[in-house]
UniProtKB/TrEMBL annotation, chain A:
TM regions (residue ranges): 12-34
Domain named DUF305: residues: 46-201
Protein name: DUF305 domain-containing protein
GTP-binding found in the keyword field: no
InterPro entries reported for this sequence: DUF305_CopM-like, Ferritin-like
Species classification: Bacteria, Bacillati, Actinomycetota, Actinomycetes, Micromonosporales
Gene3D superfamilies in the cross-refs: 1.20.1260.10
Native source organism of the sequence: Rugosimonospora acidiphila
Signal peptide: none
TrEMBL record, chain B:
Biased composition (Gly residues): 78-101
Biased composition (Basic and acidic residues): 29-48
Residue stretches of biased makeup (Low complexity): 16-28, 62-77
Pfam families: DUF3105 (PF11303)
Identification of the protein by name: DUF3105 domain-containing protein
Length: 211, 330
């Protein structure tokens, strides 16, 4: 042991080696860690958005799949088809983000906690903004004829507005370009569909839901 | 004091010299060689050090000894090692011998080692390395697969390890099915899945439909009907509004609470047990046997039926209702 320090040369070599090894350990470890430092964390707005928007989207997909086979207006069926497939795809993208970030599909915090004041926006049933109640889903499920078109447009319009509200929060909070890009696209599409559904409701002689 | 500064290095650090040489020494005769030695050595060293070396020289006080050390040094280390010696000394050697002249060596004392800086650098490096290693460990732990995280939950039963049939493609069937576990955790199941978009069922639901929900990645929370209402409410708050979750009472349950995911079960006594959240976090969606499938779609494909008997939506000669996405034996 002390032989390693017997002469200055040996001492220098020993110390140099130790320092070099430590530097390698630090460098390697830091390099290994670097990617995880750059990805969003468990409680980040990005992770919260990916999780909550997945749930939010899932209900839209559900409603669209219910309306698609039985809506009477071709424009409504087309929109239901579009919403079901695109939002299911977006769920897949968001779930893949979470996996890439080494995060679970389930968060450690309550729904909407990533938004300032978000948890207070949940209904007593734990529903996020714009989501339909169970009774409304049942209504849509048992509706027939033109009533399907009307209910679908009413429920989906409100659902989109709630979704856009959450997207706006993400766009305020996040600097992650990948997440922002998808969120911005969602917002643009949903805004366009909101306009279309308003037109459709007018054609159907109905009004958007009041809240 | 600038007596022996033969090399270029000598005048580089005039400031350190007065400090070294200026030390009052009780023994005047011993002072001179000591100062020489200090002079020659000084340029090689960091500013902090000469003073210390000189001090130690002054206390130990004997110049012969100092010279011996110097001789040893130059013979064993510097002279032979020359500029190839790594670490903290080589620049001096290079500078000293660089002119083609033989290194003039009255020189080179190395009594005290630089343990101060060495200890500082070493400990800082060690602490840095420890921090990095710890962080790497944490991130690595975090990156473990969901299954090994779930297996680490105390009391969980991982049937995927013992009942490997659970990992094979599950079949669909109509009618009652007997399951080896109670509540069941997987296996052949009804064509229709119980809706699992945060549904809190007030009554018992059919095993055969619930197992299909497990296959889709849902966590099924069951409780003995005798569970106090406040605990039922506490459980319901973890389920309501959460996609890939469903909950129902389970008559005859041998524990107050039981959680199921495909191939996993955890039985508990209380609704405030922190393992409940852990189970959900580790297994919800992750435990799916069909990545990407949903918990509720067209109303023809899911059921919200309660009661012990399986719902058989669309059973009519054909193996399953048209448009049902989960028919293909999965």
């Amino acid at each position: 042991m002390f032989g390693l320090f017997a002469t200055p040369r040996r001492r220098a070599l020993t110390i140099g080696t130790v320092v070099a090894v430590l530097a390698l350990v630090i460098g390697f470890g830091a390099g290994w860690l670097a990617p995880s430092l750059r990805t969003p964390g468990d409680n980040s707005p990005e992770a919260g958005f990916a999780r909550d928007m997945s749930t939010h989207h899932a209900q839209a997909v559900s409603m669209a799949m219910t309306a698609y086979p039985k809506a009477t207006m071709p424009e409504v069926r087309q929109m239901a088809y579009d919403i079901a497939l695109s939002q299911q795809n977006q769920i897949g993208v968001m779930q893949t983000w979470l996996r890439d970030w080494n995060l679970e599909p389930t968060g450690s915090q309550p729904k909407m906690a990533w938004m300032p004041g978000g948890t207070q926006e949940l209904t007593p049933d734990g529903l996020m903004p714009g989501m339909a109640t169970d009774a409304q889903l049942q209504q849509l499920s048992s509706a027939t004829g033109k009533q399907v078109d009307i209910l679908f447009c009413q429920l989906m319009l409100r659902h989109h507005l709630g979704g856009i509200h959450m997207i706006d929060a993400l766009l305020q909070l996040s600097h992650n370009q990948q997440v922002r890009d998808l969120a911005q696209t969602m917002k643009t599409n949903q805004q366009a569909e909101v306009d279309q559904m308003q037109t459709l409701l007018t054609q159907l002689g109905a009004e958007p839901l009041s809240s | 004091m600038s007596i022996s500064t033969p090399q270029a290095g000598g005048n580089r650090r005039p400031s350190s010299k007065p400090a070294a040489g200026g030390k009052p020494a009780p023994d005047a005769s011993g002072d001179k060689p000591k100062a020489d030695a200090a002079d020659a050595r000084t340029p090689t060293d960091k500013p902090a050090r000469p003073a210390k070396a000189a001090r130690s020289g002054a206390t130990s006080g004997s110049s012969p000894r100092a010279r011996t050390t110097a001789a040893e040094r130059s013979a064993g280390g510097r002279a032979t090692g020359g500029r190839s010696g790594g670490g903290n000394r080589p620049p001096t050697a290079g500078r000293g011998g660089g002119g083609g002249r033989p290194p003039i060596t009255p020189v080179k004392i190395n009594q005290g080692r630089h343990w101060g800086p060495v200890a500082l650098i070493s400990s800082v490096s060690l602490v840095a390395a420890a921090i990095v290693v710890f962080a790497v460990y944490e991130v690595h732990q975090n990156g473990r697969g969901w299954q090994s995280k779930a297996d680490a939950i105390q009391g969980i039963v991982d049937y995927r390890k013992t009942e490997t049939d659970l990992l094979k493609p599950a079949q669909h069937a109509y009618g009652k099915i007997n399951y080896p576990q109670s509540p069941p955790v997987g296996g052949t199941h009804n064509y229709n899945w119980e809706r699992c978009q945060g549904d809190v069922y007030p009554d018992q639901i059919p095993n055969e439909n619930a197992v299909h929900a497990l296959e889709h990645g849902a966590v099924w929370v069951t409780y003995n009907p005798s569970l106090p209402k406040d605990e039922v409410d506490q459980l319901a708050s973890k389920v309501r509004g959460n996609d890939f979750m469903l909950m129902s009472p389970y008559p005859g349950l041998d524990k107050p609470i039981s959680l199921q995911a495909w191939g996993f079960q955890l039985k508990l006594d209380h609704a405030n047990d922190p393992r409940i959240d852990q189970f959900i976090k580790d297994l919800r969606v992750n435990a799916t046997m069909e990545p990407g499938v949903t918990c509720g779609q067209d109303s023809g494909s899911y059921v919200t039926k309660t009661g012990p008997d399986p719902a058989n939506l669309g059973q009519s000669g054909a193996p399953a209702p048209a448009g049902m996405p989960s028919v293909a034996g999965s």
